[in-house]
Amino acid sequence: MRDELRGLLSDLKRRGKRLAAYGAAAKGSTLLNYFRVGRETLDFVADRSTYKQGRFMPGVRVPVVAPERLVEEMPDYVLLLTWNFADEILAQQAEYRRRGGRFIIPVPEVRVV
User: Fold this and answer.
1) CA pair distance 17, 28, nearest whole angstrom
2) 104 is in which domain, residue-wise?
3) Could you tell me which of 60, 70, 54, 72 has the C-alpha nearest to residue 22?
4) In this predicted structure, what is the pLDDT of residue 80?
5) CATH number at residue 8
6) Under a CB-based contact definition with an 8 Å cutoff, are residues 62 and 42 in contact?
């Protein structure tokens, strides 16, 4: 899974795509650190928690921002770090998706929606 996700992210970056992530949960931090994905790949991590906004993801130092930044900055792809809430988050981010934004869901298998 690590090789597949890192390969996808690397390919997207090579093609000039902008990437962000959603969900500053502990499991997302673990994934980023284990997969070695950080600032070289992700511009920011969006999260609804105002307690996390303005801080950084542990270990990889990617800034955490409000979810509104997804629509403001329109990264091409968003890595979903809270994959267990995929349906809920995809519904919340309907405007981002309507404008052409896509999500990468890494678990249980890597897929782009």
Assistant:
1) 21
2) 2-112
3) 70
4) 98
5) 3.40.50.720
6) yes
What angle do the packed helices 2-14 and 26-35 form, to 10 degrees?
80
* Distance, CA of 77 to CA of 21 (rounded, Å): 8
pTM: 0.96
| pLDDT tens, residue by residue, 34-93 | 999 999 999 999 999 999 999 999 999 999 999 999 999 999 999 999 999 999 999 999
Provide the number of structural domains found in the chain: 1
Sheet strands (E) in the chain? 19-22, 45-46, 64-65, 77-80, 102-105, 111-112
Residue 78 bridge partners (DSSP) = 20, 103
Q: How far is CA 30 from the centre of its chain?
A: 13
